[in-house]
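Try it yourself: sequence plus glutamic acid, in.
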Amino acid sequence: MTKKPQNLFEMAQAQLDEAASLLNLEPGVHAILREPIREFHVSIPVKMDDGRAEVFKGFRVQHNNARGPFKGGIRFHPDETIDVVKALATWMTWKCAVIDIPLGGGKGGVICNPLEMSEGELERLSRGYIDAIWEFIGPDRDIPAPDVFTNPQIMGWMMDEYSKFKGYCSFPGVITGKPLSIGGSVGRGDATARGGVYAVVEAAKHLKIDLNNSVVAIQGFGNAGSNAALLMRDLFNSKIIAVSDYRGGIHNEKGLDPHKVVQYLQKTGSVVDFPEADNISNSELLELDADILFPAAIETVITGENASRIKAKLIPELANGPTTPEADDILYQKGTFIIPDILCNAGGVTVSYFEWVQNSARYYWDEDEVHQRLNKHMTRSFQAVLTESLKRKVDMRVAAYVVAVARVAEAMKLRGWV
Ligand code: GLU
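Structure, out:
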């Protein structure tokens, strides 16, 4: 890489550039894929509980829809920026392509601190966001979903608000990750972690690692991280030696009981100070002596600075963008196997796709069916990326980009865009 990326979007562009050069991508196709098709900047007025009106800034970025409607989550985060949303929208395009579902890439974000807002304020903000963008989304246009600090309840309010604009009693296909009773899918709750675990099973076969009793550290204990802990413990009796949240981490060499940590988190709002563990920092957690390290929190935590000290042999990226390109090079040289985000955490959007299919069919599958279909997508895509990585002698991230970019480029060609 010639120039060091200055922000997350430049990092996403640098990753695309590498795949484009391996694929000898036509310059016109490459230029289209380097930028989102559209981006919206909106101002959302919200009446706060104390009677004041506050105006929140929000974004929706639509990166590419050659393979199907734009798809991607909405983040509520105090540090949200347009560059982050553009990077995440770009990654959604690759994610949907690599997992081979007929959707494109989009992402939304609102600058706010949901941890300091009341339920009523959050509801008014969620509805206000839809008021600002409803004309540009829809089941055949752009389908939002949950992401960092947004959840099924928020999706429920947003679906309700959109339905009012359309004059329908319910318009479930506009948004995924909804509560079950208003058109959600079984299996969506833990889909990101479960998909990642299916990918880990394939990686372990390839690397000849025994997952039974494996030692696991997990950065992040939100939807993806907590479910990964529960699944690894329940399926493989893994020893979960550390987990963390935005406030810090907890560590116990003998293993934590993730069920108890979940209960503690629900009671106190954080994993920090869990009684059967020592507190550690988020950066200490990354360097623990574990077989498997799941980054399941935020972007750019594994960097050129700490990569050489990471001991885990397998890094399944449940977060989006946790590893910088510099760290990628260091880890690849060391023989660390990364399951890249666009593949590893694609289980969430895959079950979102199932939800969208079930909404339009108005017929709902059972959990076994969702799990089996998810497993099929994860396994097939993992093998396609692994084959590309071995064939081209490149790391799994570059291979995943090559697979994804080739698929999107083919769709653009067949539609006559280039
Ligand atoms: N926010 C999730 C992601 O980054 C899920 C997106 C979706 O379900 O559309 O993949």
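One thing you can check immediately is this: The two ends are 27 Å apart (CA to CA).
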